[in-house]
Amino acid sequence: MHTIDIRQDQIRLLDQRKLPLVEEYVACQSYEETARAITDMVVRGAPAIGVTAAAGIALGVQQMPEPDSEADFDAQFDTICETMAQTRPTAVNLFWAINRMRECLQRCRQAPLAQRRETLWQEVYHLHEEDIRLNRQIGAHGLDLVPPQSTVLTHCNAGALATAGYGTALGVIRAAHFAGRQVQVLADETRPFLQGARLTTWELQRDEIPVTLITDNMAGYFMQQGRVDLVIVGADRIAANGDVANKIGTYSVAILAKEHGIPFYVAAPLSTIDRALASGAEIPIEQRHGDEVRTVGSQRIAAADIEVENPAFDVTPAKYIRGIITEVGVASPPDEGTIAALFSASND
Ligand SMILES: CSC[C@@H](O)[C@@H](O)C(=O)COP(=O)(O)O
Question: Enzyme class, one word (predicted)?
Fold first, then answer.
């Protein structure tokens, strides 16, 4: 299963709106179609959005009309990057990946157009492979936090589908499973897009990792019953102080976990940490269309004209988080010091 299948004439994306009922790829034939696929959540999840945007940029440069000057090339390149940047505001991996493509272009600036195109594609393949490698490292660092025979609750989908492969939160669960820890997963359904019900259960079942689906409002019940040992979620953006933006509902789960003395961990690559933001209050929260709340699947469940709020993410303050599991180690407790130490470790 490939979440993102990169070809030089199109980007093929496993259509996450249709899973688990239909396994179908959407072929994006241009950078504009790639951008629309991100906005419409054909592909979603912070690292997957980043890799897809990078691929969209390479596709845009591949197809751009022959520029008549360097200024014309720059203008076209900026338009492509800006279109990608407008897709979704919260996952910082999007902007991180666009920057990586800009930096890559700077390195091959002097080369002829054909060579620039090739170098940008090579960067995309590199980002794709790198993401899978980092996820495996996150899994290795998180493994020992998962006790044998434990039940792990997760929210949303931070798995292979949300990344280039393997996953972050589900990467840790995968690593524990394949190390023989006999882990069980409780998957929150994750209204309104139902990433937990549709995607997390689907990908864990494929790996034969035991998973039970619960509705979002059952998390407290299972914690009170002593049936949750650990919570692991992903992240869309982490501020310098360790506050974490993740799928709406994560904050409620974190508070429930704190009340019940259950360790709450976040798994994410360093590219999800936005050190330019002092705290989570500065993280932009995407507001999505109200119809996602008025409907379940294609079924409308509320009046078409009912007022709706649909924030896609919330911010969990660092004080509720036991640790942030990254590819270079665990920031625990997460704060400016432990996070800065991870970045120093990554530069060694
Ligand atoms: C490894 S993915 C981490 C996060 O991106 C994930 O938990 C999440 O909130 C995804 O939100 P989505 O709106 O589905 O893109």
Answer: isomerase
Task: Find out whether the beta carbon of 235 lies less than 6 Å from any atom of ligand 1.
Answer: yes
CATH of the domain at 273: 3.40.50.10470
Both 325 and 295 in one domain: the answer is yes
Domain count for the chain, please give it.
2
- Full residue range of the structural domain in which residue 315 is found: 141-347
Check if 209 has its Cβ closer than 6 Å to any atom of ligand 1: no
Contacts of residue 144, defined as CB under 8 A and 6 or more positions apart, other chains included, come to none
Calculate the alpha carbon distances from 101 to 17, 36, 73, 256 in Å: 27, 19, 14, 40
Interface predicted TM-score (ipTM) of this complex, two decimals: 0.99
Amino acid at 330: V
- How many C-beta atoms surround the C-beta of residue 49 within 10 A? 28
In angstroms, what is the span from residue 8 Cα to ligand 1's centroid? 26
pLDDT for 348 equals 81
Which of 136, 168, 191 delimits the end of a domain? 136
Asked if 63 and 193 sit in the same domain, the reply is no
Tell me: do 130 and 247 sit in the same domain.
no
Smallest CA separation from ligand 1 atom 1, residue? 158
Q: Is 104 exposed, middle or buried (0-12, 13-18, 19+ CB in 10 A)?
A: buried
Residues that constitute the known binding site for substrate: 44-46, 88, 195, 246-247
Inter-residue contact 97 to 58 (CB < 8 Å): no
pLDDT tens figures, 161-214 = 999 999 999 999 999 999 999 999 999 999 999 999 999 999 999 999 999 999
- 126 with 275, same domain? no
How far is the C-alpha of 51 from the C-alpha of 128, rounded, in Å? 6
